[in-house]
Amino acid sequence: PPIQPFAITFGADNATLEPQGQVLTRRMSDLEGLFADADAWARAVADGDPVVYTVVSSPVPEVPRELPQSITTIQPGLTAGEFWMTKGHQHPDPQGEIYLGLAGHGGLLLFDGERAEWLDMSPGVIGYIPPGWAHRSVNVGDEPYKFLAVYPGSAGHDYGWVLEHGMGLRARRAADSGDLDLVPFGTP
Ligand code: PA5
Ligand code: NI
Fold first, then answer.
1. 69: enclosing H helix or E strand
2. Which residues surround ligand 2, an ion (CB under 5 A)?
């Protein structure tokens, strides 16, 4: 049956949706091949395999013409100086998407295969992802970074594209200052 109009309530901590659909948990082991330091990644997997992020979806299905939403919560953390992040993906059906910062401090890394862009994300900021730009979210703060995503139901998620092409930049914490340091993807 078609989806009927309905209202969604944010949980008090902005991390839950009511009504709620699927909940996805990504642990460190789900992020194979994504951090620059593969040894540090393997140690983190062996050492408890922590939850890196969760994605709570509304009940709107990912099918053409629907407009699903989800809230992602990325935990604060570093793997060999690289800030914890989402896997990142490209939409196989190139369509735009919007993110709205809800809590904490993050970044939205965008890569079209040639150019990389970084959008600083904090509560109240809308980050726009144009069609054709792969996207990854990064927690650059000390507390959980949360954002709402709204995207066309036909967009899909291509994770292989990011494994093949990278994301153009990596987000690290500078050892000396502790500041965000965006470095070219191939930097050892
Ligand atoms: O639709 C989106 O772009 C987001 O909801 C992401 O799927 C979410 O942040 C998790 O990231 P990823 O799908 O790259 O694991
Ligand atoms: Ni997306």
1. strand 69-74
2. 97
* pLDDT 10s digits, 89-144: 999 999 999 999 999 999 999 999 999 999 999 999 999 999 999 999 999 999 99
137 lines ligand 1 (CB under 6 A): yes
Q: For residues 20 and 36, give the distance between their C-alpha atoms in angstroms, rounded to a whole number.
A: 34
The band of 163, judged by pLDDT with boundaries at 50, 70 and 90, is: very high
Q: Quick one: which ligand is closest to 72's CA?
A: 1
What ligand 1 atom has the least distance to the C-alpha of 151?
1
Give me the domains of the chain, ranges plus CATH numbers. Answer: 16-184 (2.60.120.10)
**Across residues 43-71, what is the average pLDDT?**
96
CA distance 65 to 52: 31
Tell me if 139 CB under 6 Å of ligand 1.
no
Ligand at shortest distance from the CA of 71: 1
Question: Which of 98, 93, 23, 24 has the alpha carbon at shortest distance from 64?
Answer: 93
Closest atom of ligand 1 to 147 CA is 9
Looking at residues 30-34, what average pLDDT do you find?
Answer: 98
